[in-house]
Design brief:
This protein has 425 residues and is mainly alpha-helical. It has helices spanning 14-43, 45-64, 69-82, 86-95, 102-127, 130-133, 143-146, 150-166, 185-188, 190-195, 217-245, 257-305, 316-344, 349-382, 393-409; strands at residues 200-203, 206-209. It has a two-stranded antiparallel ribbon with strand order 1-2. It is found in: Membrane.
């Protein structure tokens, strides 16, 4: 799409410009996530979720109709700013089920995000430029011929519209676990708790000191770890498609968008199976912290192997690439789900929406930087094919491993503070 918008003067510069389109969504979400979280604690999870899905229908459709680079950036930014969905959904997942099923509930949230992250690019690979790929079905003079990237966006918006309708049957959970009506008063002072840690809130006829989210170190330390790994995952996602489609003379795999889409589709299917049937058992045995540590350390050798796949030929290349992509993405979702569990158990229910909003703000900032940074580094790496230290794309995957190692280190004490129930980790 960046190529066809004619903003990049050279092929090597496409990654640079593509990164800013990806970053604009996260920047918009960074600016509004905490506000959406506070709103979800005040008016309920459902209204925020419904409005977020509605924004997907509108702005995702407009993105597919972009006629300029700046229109693409603007529509993605507005989608991020108006879509406060992810934070309230994590709170909702904890509240809608019994404590023993929390790991499964949050694994479904991260699975949905992970599958979307995989299936989205897969849809793009299969359905982009339909007039060229399916000339018998789509005429070059049709809407899809004039807007070659509209079809995958339309399909996503149609799916979002169906989900929006299904929200009619979605129950509200904000007050589901409240002991009495008096406890609802604590929500009124929620915004002040983010600023004033000493504020007193009258609850059940007595004074109760509410803990500031910023002074809740179990929450804040888990959010920081979450942000580091989210930064890594977003950078990896950005790099993977650029690397797989770049020419072998630049260290890539010379795959077509359809080939990349197929790899991502297989990975997306594996995520669903893994999170439904394997992750809850792994979490029960190892706990969220140990499972995250093991997943992080296993990611490092896999990423080191990626640049050497350029020397493989078919069918070995496709087999190895699919296996590596499946393992890498399932390990990444293991880490993210573990941090979800730690965050949501570090706060009471009346602070959960704001806590998840704060988490989304931090994560969105890191994910806004990640695509732009990854695009810049990728473009730079492709220009140093004969460098002495990790030439070409080897440098990109080396830097990804540095970030992964940093996240792994931060999962240990004294940095990561955990609740008593996780001390065995």
């Amino acid at each position: 799409m960046i190529r066809d918008l004619n903003v990049a003067k050279r092929t090597e510069d496409i990654g640079f410009y593509a990164g800013f389109v990806g970053a604009s969504f996260m920047l918009g979400r960074c600016l509004t996530s905490t506000a959406w979280g506070i709103m979800a604690d005040r008016i309920g999870r459902k209204p925020v979720v419904v409005f977020g899905i509605f924004s997907v229908v509108v702005f995702n459709t407009l993105f597919g109709l972009s006629v300029s680079y700046w229109m693409a950036i603007a529509t993605r930014f507005l989608l991020g700013a108006l879509n406060g969905l992810l934070g309230p959904i994590k709170a909702y997942a904890i509240e809608v089920c019994r404590p023993e099923h929390e790991a499964l509930a949050l694994s479904l949230v991260s699975t949905a995000w992970g599958i979307g992250l995989i299936i989205g690019p897969a849809l793009g690979g299969y359905l982009a430029m339909p007039a060229e790929n399916f000339p018998n079905v789509f005429s070059p003079d049709s809407l899809f011929g004039r807007f070659p990237y509209f079809l995958p966006c339309l399909c996503t918006s149609a799916f979002a519209a169906a989900v929006l309708i299904s929200c009619i049957w979605m129950p509200e959970t904000l007050h589901k676990h409240k002991g009495s009506e008096n406890e609802n008063q604590s929500i009124e002072g929620l915004e002040a708790h983010l600023i004033d840690p000493e504020e007193k809130v009258e609850e059940s006829g007595s004074l109760n000191t509410k803990k500031s989210l910023f002074k809740n170190w179990p929450l804040m330390s888990s959010i920081i770890v979450y942000c580091i790994f989210s930064f890594h995952d977003m950078a990896y996602t950005e790099v993977f498609s650029l690397w797989a489609e770049s020419d072998k003379k630049y260290g890539g795999l010379s795959l077509s968008s359809e080939d990349v889409g197929q790899v991502l589709a297989v990975t997306g299917a594996s995520l669903l199976v893994y999170q439904l049937f394997l992750y809850p058992r792994i979490n029960k045995i190892l706990g969220p912290i140990n499972s995250s540590r093991i997943a992080a350390i296993l990611c490092i050798p896999i990423l080191f192997a990626y640049p050497y796949m350029t020397y493989l030929s078919e069918p070995g290349l496709s087999i190895i690439l699919n296996i590596a992509s499946v393992i890498k993405n399932n390990l990444a979702v293991t880490i993210i789900t573990g941090t979800f569990i730690l965050q949501n158990n570090a706060v009471p229910q009346d602070q959960r929406g704001a806590a998840n909003g704060l988490s989304m703000t931090g994560m969105s900032f890191f994910k806004a930087v990640a695509p732009a940074g990854a695009g810049i580094v990728f473009s730079w790496a492709q220009k140093r094919q004969h460098g002495f230290f990790f030439p070409g794309d080897q440098m990109v995957f080396f830097l990804l491993n540095v970030i992964e190692l940093l996240g792994f280190i931060l999962t240990f004490k004294p940095f990561l503070a955990v609740l008593e129930q996780y001390n065995r980790n």
